Give the backbone structure.
Amino acid sequence: MTDEIKADSFTEFVTETERTLRHALTAGFGPERGRDAAADALAYGWEHWDRISKMDNPAGYLYRVGSDRARRMRSRPTVALPVVATGHEPWVEPGLPAALARLPEQQRAVVALLYGYQWSMSEVAELLGVSKATVQSYSDRGLKKLRRKLGVEL
Amino acid sequence: MSNGLLSQLEMYYSEVDEAQDPIRPDEVSDRMDAVRVLPAPLLPLRRSRSTRKVWVALAAAAVAIALIGTVTLLISARTNDVPPATTPVVTEQSLSWTVVEAVDAPHMLELSWVPDVLHAGSRYFVSLMPDILRAADEPVVPNELWASDDGLIWELDRMPVEELVAAGASRLEAQDTAAFQLADRILVDPYGRWDPVVRSDDGVTWTVADVEPDSAGGVVWKVDNAEAMTEVRIPWIVGGFTPTGWIFEFADGYAGLQVTPPFGDRSVAQPFEAYHSPDGQNWSRVDAPAFADAGYDHFDRRVGFAHQHGVALAVLSDADPRDPLQDAQFRMWRSDDGITWTNITPQQLNGAGVWALEGAWLQGPSFMTGDGAATFQLSPDGEQWDQIDVPVEFANFQGEVRVAGNKIFVFGEDRLLVATYTP
C-alpha cells in the first residue's frame, strides 16, 4: 500500500468511523476520557493501518484499543459525566449522570448507545464484539439499576 | 419524573454530543507518540520515592512510640479498626456439597464488582473490585479484600482508596505465600511510568511492592527483588493490545499461552500461540499443531485456562452473534508438560449449555468446569464429562464463579457463597 493510498484509505475510514468510535467510548468512559481514548485509538489505527485495514471489523478492534487506553487513564485526573444544566424543558433528572457513572462500564456503554445515541442492537453487538443476547442482558440490567437508583418507571 | 427514562437518556446524550467536538485529523497525528510504548531506559517506579518517605516516616513514628511505651495503645487502636470477622452461615450440607454464605454484603448491590480469588500459602484471598472507580472526579469506593484461612471465617480489609486508584488493581496473583494485586495489564507508558503492584502476606496489611520491569518488554517482574513474577501478557501487548494470556508453571518450566486479537484479524487466525520457558525468563515459541485448526469466524469468543497438579487446560468457546440461540462451540486442549498440547475437545459438552471454563479443580484426576453458577461438569480424565447436580443455592444465581484451592466461590450481586465439593 503506497503512502498516498494508505492516507486516503485511512482518511475515509476516519470519516466513516470517528463519530461511531467517539460515541462508543464516550458511552463507556464519559465525554472527556472517551474522546481522548477515541483519538488515541485512531492514532493507533493509523500507525498499524496496514494490518488493521484488512480486518473484518476495524472499528471494533479500535474500540477495544480505545477501551484499553481509557481504562489505563484511571490513575489520571478524569472528568465525570457532565451535570444536567438547569432550566431544561423538558426536565432531565439531575441524578441521571451520577446514576450512569455508577453503572458497570459495559452496562453503561450499552444503555448509552442504545437509548442515548439510538444505535440498533446489531450495531452495538458488532462494535462491542458481543452477541445481541449479551447486549440485551446488559441493557436490561443497566436499565433496571438506573430505575432503581432514580426511582423512575419507564 | 416528567419523562420516561429512555427519553431522558436520549436528551441527555444529545446534549453530551452537542458539547463534544469531533476528533480532527491533526489531533490524530499529534497523538502518534502517545500511542507508542517507549523502550528502555525505564525510569524508577513513579511512586517509589513517596513510598520510601512513607516508610521512613512510619519507622520513625514506630520508634518514637516504642520509646514512650505506647505500643500497647497502638495495637489496641489498630485492633479496633479492623472490621469484625464474618459469621458463616452453612446453607447446605449434602453428601457432595457444603455451601457457606460467607459474606452477606447488601451494600454490594450499589455497584457491580469484579471478583478475583486465589489461594496463597495457607490463606484464601478474595478481592472484590468495583467495576467503576470514579464518579464526579472522585473515587467511589475502595475495593474490598477478604482473607480467610478456612473459607469459612473471613476478615475484611479495605485498602486506602488512593492506593487502589493508583494501582488500578484489577486482579490477584499469588507468589509463594504472598498475594499481589496488580493492574490487569501492566504497561510502561510513554513517560516511563507504570502502575504499582501491592502485596500482602496475610490479606490484611498491604504495601506497595518494590517492582521493576526487568526488560523493555516487561516479560519478567521482580517482586521485592526476590523471585520473579512472570507476566506473559506484556510482551505481546506492546504494539498489539493483545487481550489476554496466561502462564502455567510445570515442574520443568513454564508454559505461556497468548490469545490472538478477537476482532476478525484473519492474518492471525490461530486462537492460541504457545510459548515455553525453562526458567520463566527466556521464552521460545512452541510449535503446537493442536491449535492449528482453531481459526475463528465469530466475534463472541471466550477463553478459559486452568492449571493444577501439573496439568493445564485451555478452553475456547465461540458463539455466533448472528444466531444468539445457537450453542457455543466448545474446544479444549490439555498439556502435561507445557510443551505438547493435545486437543481433547469433549464432544458431549457441545450443546450442553457449557459456555466457558470458569475454573478447573483437580482432585486426583477430576476436572470441574462451570457455566456461570448453573452448570458444573465433572470428569475423571478431562475427556469424558458428566453434568453433576448443583446446590440449590446456585440455581438461578446470576453470579461469577471462581475456583481456588479446593473450593468454589460463587459471587452474587449481594453475597459470596463458598462451596466445597466432595466427589
User: Anything to note?
Assistant: Chain B is about 15% helix and 35% strand. Chain B touches chain A through 68 residues (CB under 8 Å).
